[in-house]
């Protein structure tokens, strides 16, 4: 949990990098653009799953505190 912010920052940087690659690749063939778009989708999915995992962990800790 304590590494969530670092992981999130790295994923945001990777996302921005892929957007820049996509913009620079707009004059290239369609396969390259489709590949970069696919990579952006994967990174977004990873980031969303990390966020939901952290939310679940925070909720479990909250429930444990309330139970005690």
TrEMBL record:
Transmembrane segments: 7-24, 36-54
Entry keyword Transmembrane helix: yes
Keyword set, alphabetical order: Membrane, Transmembrane, Transmembrane helix
Protein name: Uncharacterized protein
Organism name: Flavobacterium granuli
């Amino acid at each position: 949990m304590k590494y969530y912010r670092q992981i999130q920052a790295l994923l945001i940087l990777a996302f921005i990098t892929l957007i820049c690659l996509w913009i620079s690749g707009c004059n290239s063939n369609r396969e390259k653009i489709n590949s970069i778009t696919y990579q952006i989708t994967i990174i977004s999915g990873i980031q969303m799953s990390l966020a939901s995992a952290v939310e679940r962990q925070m909720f479990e800790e909250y429930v444990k505190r309330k139970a005690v």
